[in-house]
């Protein structure tokens, strides 16, 4: 693109511009080529074409100070000319595609094939052979004319398969729809600050247009490309585009180009937007990848589908499989698959194997019995004409076998998990939890530790100055302005006005009589409020000295813990104002202002006095202490070296120390008490001073008087966890963390170290599951590392939100407790569903198996089994997975990672109910005809009409399941199973609805369902036997679990020790340790995955080579870090296990059901790639190798 620049004469340029730019003296092509350049090249182009940034603003008809006018027609024209700031998302799958995917289920395919064979054979009539010659089972039907109805069973099976497929597809479709809703919700949340008509306003990211003047600040994710107009100490992380982890300093004279998708790591500034949407750097990547994917899609679609079926294609994910315009995926440190998912996948595989074994056995026994009966006991010869009838029998047996398999395989599990999670996510939104990753919601239920920020999470984040130390006096409340010496007051007001970010301001209250609104950094707002309390207006200072006139700004960061602004005076001297953490800034002061308004020497002894008599008493009341100071640089000393910060930030004169109050949120102490009762340890990790932190922790209830808990600061923490060589040792962390409750003056690295230390610890038996809250850019690593990262929706930076799993839309700690409740509820919902499903599985499989072996026919027919399966899977998962959470969930300890899904109590319930149900079914099966005085349905010949006997068996079976569904609502041995049943209307309506459909099936189902209508008496008996389940449930509950020594729990998570070492090494490259996959045949999966990975990489490299051919000759070593670099594709980022700042989150499983095995492509060693494609210098592959 760089070659498209306009290098002609000025007149030629104008002619070109007028030719294709319409209203603006700048074309889209011109701006795109400008943004391709970096550093000096970019500056040269701006100077050559526009003179300076001011010239570019003029050409784009915008003002660097007032921005755009904001008129609707102007904005619309710009969108038309330069495009909107939207990257079109990937098309969702159509309903038909989802139907096709649902049809790929192996068990369904087997059923379809069997049903079609059965259909075909049912129309075949043997020519002359008498049916009697083919054996007893085949005869005696012709007379009743029932053989004509033989096709019904095959057709009914096909119909039920269609039902199952439609239900599955509909569920997938609604799930995808929900995800898109969630996605758009996250995108709508994203706003950006721009200047329009001289007013600073926040607009949705999609509303930004070329020519807008945007304000960027620490923590922003840039939504479009732009050129810097003015910057203060601006540093950008461009690793998402270039792969370089070093922060790039942006200034007007070195590198003014800011690119979309990059993060502001420090400082602030104003930029002129020059490219949006598909024309921005992120957009260009997406367009390249999208085009390539479409091209490949047409050629190799079938291959791709073939792969994705067998677990080998896990790697073959589309390159831009990401719905969020602004976001690009990024590999992150390996996280285990969610606890629940690991357990479920393992359990499902084990149940599936058992089901396969049982169904195979059923088919073999049925065929053997038939052969023995026909050819040995009856002693019939093999007649060729009877072959189709024999085949028909075999197909019937095969269908019975497959039906056993269908009932045994719990395909409702993924559905239950999805429904439960999706329902929870929807409800959690009302509880101010915006869930970005589905499994985070469930992991939260297992949380054992929460590391929380203080400001804004535990406190209200509404700060006010309540005490001040000024002119040798400690004022317990804000002093009147006439008590302060004039010189000190002027310096104070000037210092606070210019040395607070211009984005922080106090606005008038929204309601009459309400509190003034604080916009921007809350600590700065407290200081600005202090100026207003002193009856002065900070805006007059800001109008006199606009942001452009500030000479230099050292913005606040976690290392400096202070912020300084330098002003240049008319006489050539400089004055610097500083503010920051009091104990840090006081050390750098050598003078202090006195009551007379003069500066006096500030000796070390005086500093100790101030710390002891002022700072510590303020801190012990829970106040945050801030020191305000200034320094003059006289012209005689010459120009200072502004880059040498240590020299600049010394010899300060202290103006005052203020104590800022941030009251504890009223609901927090109760929320923390509930957490502690639920077995969750709450730790406070804050940047505040240790006394302030201790005071707030006591108010919140994290610390209690007389507790033997640790409360230390970052320096002491590091001293204790590091050895003599300065390396962190896990054993040392293990000595500290169990007792640690408050970590003060901590850096983001300390936070990350603590979280990692707790997670890696093996001191306490179940591995700790850690949740972390964070709001700053540098909280990214800790948020990413933790099992669940909570970002603040209001105070959080974009970077923190990207790294998090859940966004707290109200920044409130008590919302985290709600997340814990929902998480535990999900876990319990899945367990309830499992208890119900496994009871049905055990009973149905045993009935089908023994019935088939004894009577050579399954008492429950294929279509009936499919109906039972529908009740079990879809309906039950809906009913049991939507139970609302109750407070009682917080009265038990967390489950932990190794707690089995099916506890011994649940196993007792499953086996107990199975015993009752089997007793009833077998009694009805073998003596039912005598009890009800009806014809026996056993040993019926092929195509015999349905019997009353078997209809009663089927009906009683379904009734027992319905009542057992009510039993399944409680899994911890509670007696009252009806508790809160009417709060869940979904449950009530499903149970009632199933009952109505069952009546219709029995009374009017006829031949397809193998049913005949029953009398009222028979119905009442069926319902009574079903109701017996509830009574029997009380008996089962009475038996103490501890007495039943033989009971085993099931559904454990895979232990790390169970994994062979060579496989652990193999899994090191993966993003997730997937326990289900380990159950599969490992060699096959690894081989297919390797193949898939190499294919993907070759396709991508080819794509990039195709796209790049025009620029081949132009590429220079410097431009290898440009947009076209191979490293730019998000999937091919290579990171250490602990990246510096994992910025953009991986929205991996968001479009898949939680049980699907996803894996992000990871790079093989360069040797593999180079073997696949010889690199040539200047090619993206070559630059990939050099960076590797």
From TrEMBL:
The name this protein goes by in its record: Calcium-transporting ATPase
PANTHER family named in the record: CALCIUM-TRANSPORTING ATPASE, CATION TRANSPORTING ATPASE
Any Pfam family the entry gives: E1-E2_ATPase
Keyword Nucleotide-binding attached: yes
Function noted in UniProt: Catalyzes the hydrolysis of ATP coupled with the transport of calcium.
Lineage: Eukaryota, Metazoa, Chordata, Craniata, Vertebrata
Protein location: Cell projection, Cilium, Flagellum membrane; Membrane
Catalytic class of the enzyme: translocase
Catalytic activity: Ca(2+)(in) + ATP + H2O = Ca(2+)(out) + ADP + phosphate + H(+)
Known partners and oligomeric status: Interacts with PDZD11. Interacts with SLC35G1 and STIM1. Interacts with calmodulin.
Membrane topology summary: Multi-pass membrane protein
Bilayer-crossing regions: 356-377, 397-423, 910-927, 947-964, 985-1006, 1018-1039
A single cellular component GO annotation: plasma membrane
EC number of the protein: 7.2.2.10
Family: Belongs to the cation transport ATPase (P-type) (TC 3.A.3) family. Type IIB subfamily.
Molecular-function annotations in GO: ATP binding; ATP hydrolysis activity; calmodulin binding; metal ion binding; P-type calcium transporter activity; PDZ domain binding
Keyword field: ATP-binding, Calcium, Calcium transport, Calmodulin-binding, Cell membrane, Cell projection, Cilium, Flagellum, Ion transport, Magnesium, Membrane, Metal-binding, Nucleotide-binding, Phosphoprotein, Translocase, Transmembrane, Transmembrane helix, Transport
Organism: Hucho hucho
Ranges where the Cation-transporting P-type ATPase N-terminal domain occurs: 47-123
